[in-house]
Specification:
This protein has 132 residues and is α+β, with helices and mostly antiparallel strands. The chain has 2 domains: 40 residues; 89 residues, OB fold (Dihydrolipoamide Acetyltransferase, E2P). The N and C termini lie far apart (75 Å). The strands form 2 sheets. The chain has a 5-stranded antiparallel β-sheet with strand order 5-4-1-6-7.
Length: 132
């Protein structure tokens, strides 16, 4: 048996690798469990509201640089365009994503039907669907 093969065993490896792997897996599971508990199975209610504003976010691209193995690695991230309408439901401002066709047909002061839900933990009001 060579010296290199004899030195490296599962019990002699750096324990940081095992601990880091377990912590990373637990963090990912906790993140998705939080999202599931906060949002799944919520009651959705319908409201007729007045549009208070519109916002178009054009597509874009942003760049960020990482250092990997001592070398710079530049990556780009693309964002798609979104069409957002804002409205007030029960005294609380919120927003919903809509199609381009609906966005173009709406203006401030128009009435729309929205389906909204309130999350469990964060108590945020989320617009699930916006229709004319």
């Amino acid at each position: 048996m060579s010296e290199a093969a004899r030195r490296m065993t599962p019990f002699s490896a750096n324990p940081f690798v095992y601990v880091f792997s377990v912590v990373a897996i637990v963090a990912v599971v906790a993140y998705f469990a939080y999202g599931a508990i906060d949002r799944l199975g919520l009651g959705v209610r319908t409201a007729n509201v007045v549009v208070t504003g519109k916002q178009h976010n054009p597509p874009g691209r942003s760049y960020y640089t990482n250092v990997v193995a001592g070398r710079l690695w530049t990556q780009s991230q693309e964002t798609s365009e979104t069409y957002v309408v804002t409205f007030r439901v029960d005294g609380e401002d919120t927003a919903g994503l809509v199609s381009k066709e609906l966005f173009d047909s709406l203006s401030s002061g128009d009435r729309v039907n929205v389906k909204v839900r309130r999350t469990r933990i964060t108590r945020r009001l989320e617009a699930v669907e916006v229709t004319r």
